[in-house]
Amino acid sequence: VKFYVAAASILEQKIAEEAGDWDVLREAGAEFLPSGCGPCIGLGTGLLEEGEVGISASNRNFKGRMGSPLAKAYLASPEIVAASAIQGKIAGPGWYQKPEGVEKVIIGEGSGDHVADKALSIEDALDKIIAEAESMIAVAEKDGSGAEAETAAPVSEAEGEETLTDIIPSFPEKIEGEIVFCDANNINTDGIYPGKYTYQDGITREQMSEVCMENYDPEFRNTARAGDILVAGFNFGCGSSREQAATAILAKEIPLVVSGSFGNIFSRNSINNALLGVEVPRLVERLRETYKDDAEKPLTRRTGWKLLWDLRRSKVVVTEKNGETWSQKVGEMPPNVQEIIARGGLEKWVKAEIEK
Fold first, then answer.
1. Fold of 147-355
2. Mean pLDDT for the chain overall
3. Domain spans in the chain, listed from the N-terminal domain onward
4. Which CATH class is domain 4-93?
5. Rounded Cα gap, residues 106 and 76, in angstroms
6. What is the reaction catalyzed (predicted)?
7. For residues 181, 344, 190 and 230, what is the CA-based torsion angle, rounded to 10 degrees?
């Protein structure tokens, strides 16, 4: 068992040292790590190898973030992590007992009344928490993007008056390609671009394309092709910020990402790095309906479907493998976003504006 400790900041470490807590941890066998991003993003000492199990008081445990995608990483409070290090397995510090002579319990240390909690097994308690979380997610999807997908009706040329969006020079009026489908919700930025490559400044564009989506599906590099349109589920690009989540997709020469919805951080990051994205919940639901009975269920699927995004008409046209075609109205592309993307991203846009 290895027990690693990193302070949240230099100031916090100094406070712990002055209180004597740092020495207690050292005498207990803790190995200290620098205060910084390492424990959060999964860099440096303490990465999990294939088959290993870790428990961490950091704030994220996306697949592959703390080391091998084939390792298991759990999140817990510092108290639980310390207790687990002592016992050599995931464990708690024991049920709280109110000390004799204490009139009240200090907030944060428990109530002292643990009889009701003891009636629940660990498995039952976890099942209860997971069920509550899944229920919240289901409600959010139904009330949000999922509801739009259920109520969206086909848009035809004759349906209402067509409005045209002005397209600035050097910005594409249409984007089209074959759909490659990653059928999963909540594909996070670690899944798109692993943290272990994030600070490798010398990595080439070709190398970035090879590791794109690696933590989600190692076979993505062989399945997806240049010019494809990537379609994924809801909340694509959630997680932590890293520009490579967008630039790796561009390095793969994928010009457009379509999803049921995007994580806000990825949506803004895409604009900053000149990657186009559009939300089409109906397309995600249609693909899932089509392939729901497929026993193979690959993480990345070549569909044979074609997608055309007509930016001037703010419309997506989908041609399914059997030749059936349908269209869906989408949001207009604002001129300021067009300008940023046409310039190659926010940094290049800012430089151009300064030079004016």
1. Aconitase; domain 4 (3.20.19)
2. 84
3. 4-93, 147-355
4. alpha beta
5. 21
6. (2R,3S)-3-isopropylmalate = (2S)-2-isopropylmalate; (2R,3S)-homoisocitrate = cis-homoaconitate + H2O
7. 0
